[in-house]
Every structure is written in structure tokens, then in C-alpha cells.
Amino acid sequence: MSWWVQLIACGIAAASFSVLLREPRNTIPVSSLVSIVGYSVFLLLGQSTLAYFLASLLIGLSCELAARLMKRAATLFVTGAIVPLVPGVGLYRTMRFVVDGEYSLAVQTGAATLLGICGIAMAITISSVIFSSFWHPNRKKRGASC
Amino acid sequence: MDSITTTLDAVCLASQLILENGGETYRAEETVERMCQGLGIPRVDVMALPTGLMLTLTLEEDNTLTRLVRVHSRSIDLNRIDECNNISRKVASGNMTADEALKALRRIKQPRKEKRFLLIAASAVTAASFTVMLGGGWTDFGVSFFCGALVQWVLTPLGKMKIPPLISSMIAGALTTLLALLGTLIVDSVNIEPVISGAIMPLLPGLATTNAMRDTIRGDLVSGGARLGEAILSVMMLAAGIGLTLSMWGGGLR
Predict the structure, then answer these.
(1) To the nearest whole angstrom, how far is the Cα of B138 from the nearest Cα of chain A?
(2) What is the pTM of this model?
(3) Chain-chain contact of B34 with A83 (C-beta, under 8 angstroms)
(4) Residues of chain B with confidence (pLDDT) below 70
(5) What is the dihedral of CA B144, B149, B152, B157, to 10 degrees?
(6) Hey, are the CB atoms on B23 and A75 less than 8 Å from each other?
(7) 3-state secondary structure string, B86-124?
(8) Domain residues of chain B, as ranges?
(9) Is the pLDDT of residue A20 over 50?
(10) How many CB atoms lie under 10 A from the CB of residue A133?
(11) In this complex, is the C-beta atom of A44 within 8 Å of any C-beta atom belonging to chain B?
């Protein structure tokens, strides 16, 4: 499959996953678009742990920004947009190696998968902190921190 | 001025809805605080957990009201969270009374007519697109589409039968793997790795993990830890389902 088919598939997957999470209708295109951008960055950076982190950071920041602009909770955007980065292949390979008795390979793959997940989690956390600490459009209202 | 019970009811219901439908714990707490501010309650102490909610309204020096709400079932419905947010925003800015808010919240709480077909279709498309994204071909697309549809079709009744979510995630993992393996029997060219990895993507607890991180970073250590534990367990159960099926298939099921 060529890369553009993969990117389109990524967008469709993110959008339909958002439907599965019962997202409100007008946030779905945003999640889908952000996920495409994030996934292409991830592919360009070579699918390393750092790529997980940087791509998720990009996704997290754009979702937080979108949340502020559209006055909605950031969770609505992030959850759908981040899914394509979740290392499902790593999980599958780890289990495959465990079943085949290749324990050293299983540990290797498992550790890489875990690092990827940690990278994503850190990035989401950092982007959320950046916005809630430095972005106060209206300091009086505590409701500003969505 | 609304009666104080209405206020308490509305506030409790709002944060209960948020906890039940996959919102973060800090959001449930903030909603209570903001709504109380808007309704003119001088002081409120609230403590939300993924499994319950406690709050005390202090009206005067010796006049306090406390309520405990237990949250039993947790599912994901981001639309409801969004609606609760809108209501709490309106109440906080003083554009809505407690009575109106309570009525609106009750309307949100009512079970909706779920379009089951839509959910099954969404699950199928998600699984199939992820398979293509991970490098699968068109036959893999077909198999994965079928996997996603069937898993969602099975998961809904399991949820209604009150099967614990951890068990149903194991069943889902096992089912996906079994279907993909059966697919290889029917069509030779099926590449099993993208099919299974793609089909389990919608089953991974992404929302629980991000919520856990967001809760932890805001200092809700108890909720963050609990949610993280839930997410890790659910991934492990999913992996166990996959591993079990793979090893049984390798060990003579074929």
C-alpha cells in the first residue's frame, strides 16, 4: 500500500473511532485531520520512541488549541486523534513472541511498546499542562480550563 | 431562588454523568465547584473518584449538606460529557437555574435509542482502516472489517449482561484472533499481523490512559492510579485473549 492510502485510512479510522466513542458531530472532522497530521509526522520521524513522543505532542497541542477555539473539552478531540499512534502492532508481536517461546524477543518488543505508550502519555500530559498553565483567556472564570 | 435540594440534586447528577460516561475526575470536581459558584453556594468541598463522589455544601456556619453518590457502571459517551459541560457552563455564568439544569440533566441521563447498526458499522470501518494503515492489503481489509463488526456485535450484549469489562476485553481479543486465523484458512493471502493489530486498536483503553495521565498531573493521585491500573489490566486481559487463542491454534486446534 502506498503511503497516501495509509494516511487516508488513518483519517477514516480516526473518524469512525470517534463515532464509536459517540463524539459530538462537529468535533469528528477535527480529530480526523489532526490524526492524519500526527501520523504522517510519526512516519516521517521513523517510528521510534522519540517519534511517538513528538507526534503525540503535536497532536496534543493541536487538540488543546482546537478545544480552546471551539470551547469544548480537550478530551473530545484527543481521544479520537491519538488512536492511530497507539502501538497495536507492538502488542500483537509481543504476544506472538511469548506464544512462540521467544522470550528475549518478546521482552525487547514489549519494552519498545511500553516506551511508545509512555511517550504518548508524557506528550499528552505535557501538552495539557502547557495549555492549562499558560493559556488564560479569561482569568476571572475558572471555567476557562477546559 | 431554587430549593437547596434541587441544587444538590442537579450538582450531583451533573458530576455523576461525567464520571459514568468517561470524563476525567477533575472535570467532575470542577463542574460541581463551578455550578455551585454560579448558584450562590458559599462553600463546597467535593471529592470525586472513578467509583464514586462525595460532596458537602456549606450554606452557613452550622448548616451543611453532605451527599454520597456511588458510580457503578462506566462507559464511554463523549457526547453526554459535552452536553453536561454546556449545562455547567450556563449554570456557572448564571444563565440557568438549578431547576432548569436538573431537568436538562435528567434528559441527558435517559437511555438513548442507540443506533446499534451505526456502532457496528463504525467498529468495522475502524478496524478495517487501521489494518490498511498498518500495511494490510485489500483481503486483510475485508477480514478485519468482518472482525470489527462481529466484535462490536458481541460486545454490546455482553455489556448488557453485566459481564465485567475486563472479561469482555479478553473475549474480544480472543474472538478477533480466532476470526483472523479462520480467515487464513479461507483465503491464503491473508496477512495475519495487520489484521489482528488493526482489529484490536479500537479495543485498547486509550481514553482510560489519557484520563489517567490528566488526572495524575492535576494531583488526583488516587483516581489517576486507579484508572491507570484499570487500563493496564484491560490491556493485559486483551493480550491474554490473543495469546491464549494463538497458542491453542498452534497447539492443535487447527
Answers:
(1) 9
(2) 0.85
(3) no
(4) 1-2, 251-254
(5) -140
(6) yes
(7) HHHHHHHCCCCCHHHHHHHHHHHHCCCCCCHHHHHHHHH
(8) 4-109, 116-253
(9) yes
(10) 9
(11) no
Chain A CB contacts of B198 under 8 Å are 88
CA–CA separation, B87 vs B84, rounded Å? 5
Contact A48, A55 (CB under 8 A): no
Residue A45: DSSP 8-state: T
Residue pair B140/B190 in contact (Cβ under 8 Å)? The answer is yes
Nearest to B30 by CA among B19, B17, B41, B46: B46
Helix or strand (DSSP H, E) at B43: strand B43-49
- Residue A144, pLDDT above cutoff 50: no
B48 SS3 class: strand
Q: Are strands B52-58 and B43-49 parallel, antiparallel or unpaired?
A: antiparallel
Q: Which of A113, A6, A138, A19 lies closest to B148 in space, CA to CA? A: A19
User: What's residue B202's pLDDT?
Assistant: 87
The grid coordinates of residue A78 equal 484527543
Confidence label for A140 from pLDDT (cuts 50, 70 and 90): very low
Q: Which region holds residue A52: left if phi is over 0, alpha if psi is between -120 and 50, else beta?
A: alpha
Contacts of A73 in chain B (CB under 8 A): 23, 27, 81-82, 85
Is A129 in CB contact (< 8 Å) with chain B?
yes
* Closest residue in chain B to residue A140, using alpha carbons only: B93
- Integer CA distances (angstroms), B210 to A125, B22, B197, in order: 8, 11, 20
Report yes or no: A137 and A68 within 8 Å, Cβ to Cβ.
yes
The whole-number pLDDT of residue B251 equals 67
